[in-house]
Amino acid sequence: MAHMIEGKLTGEGLKIAIVAARWNDFMGQKLVDGAIDTLIRHGVADDDISVVMVPGSYEIPFITKQVAQSGKYDAIVCIGVLIRGGTIHFDLIASEASKGIANVSMETGVPCTFGVITTESIEQAIERCGSKAGNKGAEAALAALELHHLGVELAGRT
């Protein structure tokens, strides 16, 4: 039978950073709150959670890399809210934030999860911040816990 390797959803003893964009903060704060609540519910101590605020989603990868390189955190949850407007600005920011966050994970080995929501409207954003479509900050926090434990499990295998 195949051996199943899965990450645990427990946070006891882990230090987690949340890097969050202030842009669209009236919705982004709901994502941050969802992430913090989820981490605490899964055993991360409140004192072991740090929230770093950046101006916007474009700046998330730069600071995320500094946070990862500090060696202080087991995983990083990246949070932002992008809503499409009438120009290509949305596409550029969404693309660079996504690629940048992924690159930080790959370069540093620290799990960095993508809790940056990219929506077509304010209504869609509100749905993803805790109403109809759940809270994407909470989902990104769970993914961070799971990825950390998967990494530990895989690193221990020969």
Q: Would you kindly provide a written description of the structure presented here, covering whatever features stand out?
A:
- Helix content is 47%, strand content 18%.
- The chain has five helices and four strands; from the N terminus they run βαβαβαβαα.
- A four-stranded parallel sheet has the order 2-1-3-4, with helices on both faces.
- The chain is globular, with a radius of gyration of 15 Å.
- The model has no long low-confidence stretch (mean pLDDT 95).
Topology:
Layout lengths: L15 E6 L3 H17 L7 E6 L5 H10 L5 E9 L5 H20 L3 E8 L2 H7 L7 H20 L3
Parallel strand pairs: 1-2, 1-3, 3-4
Strand order in space, largest sheet: 2-1-3-4
Q: What structural class should be given to the helix and strand makeup?
A: alpha/beta
Q: What would the principal axes of the Cα set say about the shape?
A: globular
Low-confidence runs of at least 5 consecutive residues: none
Task: Name its key features.
single chain, 4 strands, alpha/beta, 47% helix, four-stranded parallel sheet, 158 residues, 18% strand, globular, 5 helices
